[in-house]
Structures are given as structure tokens and as C-alpha cells.
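for the writeup, i need someone to sanity check this before i put it in the appendix. the sequnce is what the collaborator sent (i think, or maybe the updated version? ugh). structure was predicted straight from it, no edits. if anything looks off just tell me and ill rerun, i have time this weekend
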Amino acid sequence: MLLVVLLFIPAVILHATGQTLPLFDQLDVDRNGLLNKDEASKVKALIAMFDELDVNGDQYLSLSEFEAQ
């Protein structure tokens, strides 16, 4: 089920400038290199799996945790 749900998370989002930016960078609004639950909530499939992806339990998703999906 995890694989099926996460396949619908796009890898990139088209930025207003016409350039594509990696999804992680688009969601990381405060540019701290981590996604909190508020930032992750923009993608329903991601927020649904947030706690499972947050392997170290710090309430943030690092890029490596995000890419492990």
C-alpha cells in the first residue's frame, strides 16, 4: 500500500518561473532542509505517511527520509 500511495507524489512541481523544482525544495518553505508536518501537509499522500517516513521520530522529514519513500 505504501508504494502505491507514494507513486502519486510528483517528483517535481512546475514553479511560477516555468522551471521545475524538486518537490522537497518546493515544500521546504522555511529552507531549513527539513519538512515539518505543516509543510508536508501540502501533499496528502506525504502527510498520510509522515510518521512512518520519520524514522528518527524528530517530527521532521530530512531529505534522506523523504527520498527513502
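The helical segments are 2-6, 23-27, 37-40, 44-48, 50-53, 63-67. Residues 1-8 have pLDDT under 50 and may be disordered.
thx in advance!!
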